[in-house]
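Example record for the data management plan.
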Amino acid sequence: MDTLLQQLINGLTLGAVYALVALGYTMVYGIIGLINFAHGEVVMIGTMVAFTVIVSLAGSGMPPLLILGVGLVISVVVCMVLGWFLERVAYRPLRGAPRLTPLITAIGMSMVLQNVAMIIWGRNYITFPPMIEKHIFHLGGATFTNVQVAIVTLAALVMSGLIYLVHRTRLGMAMRATAQNPQVASLMGVDINRVIAMAFIIGSALGAVAGCMVGSYYEIAHYQMGFMLGLKAFTAAVLGGIGNLAGAMAGGILLGVIEALGAGYIGQLTGDFLGSHYQDIFAFIVLIVVLMFRPSGLFGERTGDRA
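Corresponding structural encoding:
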């Protein structure tokens, strides 16, 4: 039971990060039907920018929490600009092209961002300076830190804010109208280009927040970290029902818990043949199972092709 409780806590922390990244995928897909495979690299850029700001300000005498806040804000701004740039330069000119074309472009942009990050920050792993003094709390036989509490709390606040934006603001109404029928929304006075650009910008901002969480939690970063993180978040979006905001949140939390439980029990299940470092296989198993038995996801609506 102690192992189960510990892995549930770890899974909730991990799932909160997956959920934020998955929301970036699902917002773009829900509006224009595009899977932005460069989104994982946007998260990576956010982590790297936050690292650069934190290291630059570490010796300035500013309070550690203020330094983290400044790093987070600058990271969010940079990623929002990057998201706008990707939509404007890489995807908007291909909006009327066959679906395979923007997909290949997204993969190409992912490679470009990886190489740019490698040139700027190098090939080696980067260590985050410990800005927050960690305090350990006990719950039953499990332990968790104040960093984990902060990650889950911040993720919950951000996701709540996104739900409010989508369902209670004019921009959210325009997004929902565009997702339902872009042509009719345009006839009703909705600026389609602005709405789509805002989907990329907001999704990129969420990715920056998730990237800062990853850097604070693991205290390391690498120019290739966005690939696996993005792939797992995409799996979470598919699990919940890509295009569904609540589904992306639930899928991220569920995938994090599944992965954490798998890492905790994979040794027992395989007679110590496989170790916890094989935890990544559970994301791919979940993706395969969902695509085989429920391609629309747990909360997605099943739709049929019209003749």
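Summary line stored alongside the record: Residues 303-307 have pLDDT under 50 and may be disordered.
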